[in-house]
Amino acid sequence: MNVASQNELTPRPATKEGGLIAVAMSGGVDSSAVAALLLRQGREVVGLTMQLWNQRRLPELMGETPAHGRCCSLDDVYDAKRVAQHLGFSHYVVNFEAQFEERVVRPFVAEYLSGRTPIACANCNTDVKFEPLLLMARQAGAERLATGHYARVRYNRETGRYELLRARDESKDQTYFLFGLTQEQLARTDFPLGDLTKEEARELARSAGLAVADKPESMELCFVPNGNYAQFIEAYQRDQGSPLPAADGEIARQNGEVLARHAGLHQFTVGQRKGLGVSTGEPLYVISIDPAANRVTVGEDAALRQTVCEVERVNWIACATPHSPVHAEVKIRHKHEAAPATVEALGATRARITFDAPQRAITPGQAAVFYSGEIVLGGGWIARDK
Amino acid sequence: MNRVYMDHNATTPVDPAVLDAMLPFLSSDYGNAASIHSFGQKARAAVESARDSVAALLGARPQEIVFTSGGTESDNHAIFGIVGAASGVAHVITTAIEHEAVLNTCQALEKSGVAVTYLPVDSAGLVDPEAVRRALRPETVLITVMHANNELGTIQPLEEIGKIAAQADVYFHTDAVQSVGKIPVHVEQLGVDLLSLSGHKFYAPKGVGALYIRSGTRLRQLLYGGHHQRGFRPGTENVPGIAGLGKAADIARQSLAETASRTETLRNRLERGLIERVPQARVNAAAAPRTPNTANILFPGLEGEALVIALDLKGLACSTGAACSSGAVEPSHVLTAIGLPPEEARASLRFSLGRHTTEADIEFALEVIPAAVAQLRELSPTYRKAGESR
Fold first, then answer.
1. What dotted CATH number matches B16-252?
2. For chain B, which residues make up each domain, given as ranges?
3. Is B306 touching A (CB cutoff 8 A)?
4. Chain A residues in contact with B379 (beta carbon < 8 A)
5. A320-355 as b/e, with b when 16 or more CB fall inside 10 Å?
6. Were B285 and a residue from A109, A167, B125, B305 both cysteine, which residue would form a disulfide, CB within 3.0 to 4.6 Å?
7. Is B324 a catalytic residue?
8. Which residues does chain B have within 8 Å of residue A135's beta carbon, measured at their own beta carbons?
9. What is the pLDDT of residues A238-291, one digit of tens each?
10. Which ipTM did the prediction report?
């Protein structure tokens, strides 16, 4: 691994390179490797770990799941502290529970309840990690914030803009969750792992003697450790004093034929096949979710394929809002392979995407991120068909 | 890096003389104080001599002192002990600004059906003794009011409350963890029946504390086990810790007045200096009698959490709110109780001085704090006024 080549992208004009740098530390291998890497480069490092969610908030969900890997579990915080002690830099835990609930958890629940399928991690990045955390890092005296994301950022002198680029290790690329970053945020952000593979990051952690080097990756949404979103949403609503009504809606075909009843839109996502409670012989999928009618529409696989969709709250990164349609490869969910399309801006914050070929299960609430090769042009949130 | 410690309300360093008093019991004199043989006798002598010292510090009798693992155990023992010994329905009076060791114990009692009144405090952080009187009910079994507050340093009018408790024939407990060693604490004067203290808040080690229990007070024991401490608090005695606590009590008794006046001078200099040098800075609970070492300062327009980090990175250790187990800062229930809005509670920092704080330390603080505050406010969305952007 060529560590020396790290961060040698185009120099950035806006900030000093030499000052104190904050590392957002989760207690996992990636962010720990970031700290080790920066120290190796002779940087002065301070570690920050966000306290985001208190599992005791919804005690009914605490159940038998082990505490490890849970959001803000003490084990993870102490892992981060041990890494900092081992490597010899200061580490602090900062409390963003209020911001996390307001900006991530509440919208997550609201989106599901209105029949969309949100991406909490993208909100967390844009609205918590690179917002109050970055601000706190700067207030504490750091010039910049580094995270363990697999992505790259560089300054393009010709356009005068900061660019977000896919990770060299495409299988680990996390730019899909970072498309919301503004120029100001990117100007102060480093992704030191952008040129490494996961294995190289582990090797880096191992060679630095970090106990977390072989820690398993957390795959679930951090505040829903058992992955059961529906159960979380129901518990959260009870906690908020507005328990979900015993919703009784239709599961119907596109022609209106009612096949079954459902007990809440939050249990469904577009493209879902399992758990529909209908047995018709042919495989049926959720085609759309209509909150006004409290209806889930199902149909055959072919009905899931769409060529056009619109996105809202669009953020352009590599360029300002383009005046003419641009060709791009567009990714409509994390594991989707970006597909060729034309993106046409409809004003500053909206855009229409026309794919060259129909795409399966374009899901309202998910992000659509526009790429030109390795460069992220921008992205937005998939809107419901009008 | 020059590091200055201004967080003595969190914990203090072990005094060198205390360490010396402990060392034999960590090496050659390792006997169990409950043993019959000469090893045990040596340990027993140390424990009983420490009991004398702690009793002397409080104006109590030695047999009224039970050694514990610290403030939390003492508070639990006192509160659960009194309520557990009461028959029938029980009611407890406490305040909104108690330490969690009292608050959460009371909340646990509530879950088992005990009624608890949480009295408010005024803007200076003081409880009104008349409010205590008004809260009394026929079934009230315990009044528990802290002596000095950990965050503000405010000293509660325990003498008056003690008289009210005596008149009503209700047991009176105080969490004196933050006052013992800082101001005179005399159980007769205060009129308390039970008093909790913790060693590490006054230069003894962590993991040792004591509970004063007035003779004749009936309470249920908390832990069950052997016959140690008359069976009342079983568990092999922490001889080195107890010896250290005894020595710390001796030192406190001898040097309390002098230390208090010296510390108060330094604390006042710090407060004045900050008010002069930091625009809008203000002392919280300034109107109340306070422990001489504690300054709680409000710096409007910034996040206290960020300031604590910025200051620590510059070598000054202080604190904000109360730390939870992860080390993250929870919003302070104390500052909320004195009527600060959440953003002001979050913008308040505690500086707590100690026996070894020097004038040079104060000068250092007066250099780094104004600079750090200015830098933070520069970046603060709440402080920066409209019209600027970058």
1. 3.40.640.10
2. 4-11+256-379, 16-252
3. yes
4. 135, 138-139
5. eeeeeebebbbbbbeebebbebebbbeeeebbbbeb
6. B125
7. yes
8. 379, 381
9. 999 988 877 689 999 999 999 999 989 999 999 999 888 887 788 999 999 999
10. 0.85
